[in-house]
Amino acid sequence: MNDISSGKLRGIMKLADASGRFKMMAIDQRGSMVQALADALDKEKDDVHYDDVAALKTLITRVLSPNATAVLTDPIYGHPYSITEIPRDVALLLAYEESGYVSEGVGENERLSNPISNWSIAKAQRAGADAIKLLAYYHPDASSETLKHQQAFVRHVGDECEKQDLPFLLELVSYALEGTTKSVAFAKQKPDLVIRSVAEFTDPSYKVDILKLEFPADLKYTADYQDASFYAGDSAYGLAEVKEICQKLDETSTLPWVILSAGVDIEEFIENVNLAAGAGASGFLCGRAIWKDAVQYYPDTGAVTQFLENEATTNFKNANAAAENALPWFEHRQFGGAANVQVSKQSATWYQDY
Amino acid sequence: MNDISSGKLRGIMKLADASGRFKMMAIDQRGSMVQALADALDKEKDDVHYDDVAALKTLITRVLSPNATAVLTDPIYGHPYSITEIPRDVALLLAYEESGYVSEGVGENERLSNPISNWSIAKAQRAGADAIKLLAYYHPDASSETLKHQQAFVRHVGDECEKQDLPFLLELVSYALEGTTKSVAFAKQKPDLVIRSVAEFTDPSYKVDILKLEFPADLKYTADYQDASFYAGDSAYGLAEVKEICQKLDETSTLPWVILSAGVDIEEFIENVNLAAGAGASGFLCGRAIWKDAVQYYPDTGAVTQFLENEATTNFKNANAAAENALPWFEHRQFGGAANVQVSKQSATWYQDY
């Protein structure tokens, strides 16, 4: 039998559909959302109003949430105005980290993640969160100073989630120490970066429950996709290798994992979901691949709504269909089937020292 | 606009169906469940095993939960073994009070409610509760000592629920200071007892969110039901008066309210739901009227299951159908419609001092 504490169990059940597959939407973007709105409104980033970000998030949440098993939003722009738009049977994830990263005082191009100030996991729970999401930038070859900071940050969140008995969903995002992530050179490094990061954070000391991962290769640089709209014109590997990489990731992950979209176009994302699910992923947590093209219509909320109700809804349904092949979380080898999942410390007196 | 804190709002949304109607099942019985099992097993109450109570609760929860919008269970026998049986889209209510009551040191027949020791509302939240239920016995003409104790107990739970931002569902159960509740004399007193209790605990200082109430009259003693199987052979009032009593209760309740079943037979309970919904109740929280006849078959779990899958499921569906006429919680005059419900303290910085 595989024991799991009751709060985490209920939370994970709510995040997934009844079959145990995660079909989750992210609308917790802050920096990238403000930038996209700045572009749409032909403004500087600093001139984008809070109310516009909140209103756009509310609209996206209202139209698309019913397709999701869970919605991830942020406490700043998202939660106060759009929580009423999330249906009763769609779970709520709240973000813990400050948007973006800090690079001061560490090695060149290195990234430090930080919490939103005056926000906490206990507050998130009270405000209705069924689970906590933390995004940590990670490059396993960064300086030990940076590695220690990121590891301590993740460990802190793991400890706090354990204290509140809330599921901890850790999102790992790699980056380039040199050059850009949009290159064949980085595409070649990516499998190693993603898999080594998974190896690090599946250590039980981090107390992570679910990993939210980048696709561990880049299909823009995969030879077999040379006819696809997203192909970048240069190849790092072939499809057979990509499948092996996904398998290796799955072997490394001792935890259920889901795929993030990192803003790729929907065609590429559907391929990512298909390949990840084929290798053992339990679903996705996807934002921009589904709804990003809605932003350009703002402030014409009629046009935004029309896009969300049509193209974006179709995108979501296609992603959900791809996720039907995902591995239910309770079938992951960590659990070994629904029949083997049971609440930890079952007894007549568990609540006395819970 | 009618403001509500975000945790309470999410919790209340989860307890009700998407239309705002509560169709909730209670399986938190302890004393009465142990007694029913003792009868079924032809044992003394003290000889009933914990494991049998837990197993029966698990079975009832497994078969019937999918019909409910929320399930109320207890932390002792119910939670550790049956939480895995509650579907992801069925909310979880946990009981706070110790089963039964204490009568020592107070006036004759008076009842004091008490907490389960070493249990707390913060623990319930961590363990996955979407809301807290407290049963308080109440007789408005009890001694001031008893009244003060009960009022302080309710106020304590109201304060703790506010602290955790969890919905507080208060169940009020009246009793006879003299004689028995199964009498035409008590039936005549009941409307006054229920309505005066509602007047007391809707005071904002108690911080109650939803009231779980007895039907404010007794149809066993209602002349118009003289041909019904449950009629007791003597009348306290007619149906027109009962409808007026329900209206008066609704006028007194400044909070959404639901009806409890107190173990009456299903025919009578359906009438209770019809009449209460007609007067403005928002649904029900019902246990024994739906499943009580299953207990007699224990330990023949096959027979228990068969009863639950057939008669009890039919009972549940009939109760749900009756609740379709209930008033959605957000249509209660406290809220005034879904469009008027908004999260309190909405701002860009709400989370900083939340």
Inertia-based shape of chain A: globular
Poorly predicted tracts of residues of chain A: none
CATH class of chain A: Alpha Beta
Number of strands of chain A: 10
Give the tally of structural domains of chain A: 1
The overall pLDDT of chain A, averaged over residues, is 97
The percentage helix of chain A is 25-40%
Question: What's the architecture of chain A, going by CATH?
Answer: Alpha-Beta Barrel
Helix run count of chain A: 11
Largest interface: A-B, 49 and 50 residues
Task: Report the major sheet of chain A.
Answer: 8 strands, parallel, barrel
Could you tell me the strand content of chain A as a percent range?
5-15%
Q: Strand-and-helix sequence of chain A, N→C? A: EHEHHEHEHEHEHEHEHEHHE
**What structural class do the secondary elements of chain A suggest?**
alpha/beta
Radius of gyration of chain A: 20 Å
How are strands sequenced across the largest beta sheet of chain A? 2-3-4-5-6-7-8-9
Kindly report the name of the CATH homologous superfamily of chain A.
Aldolase class I
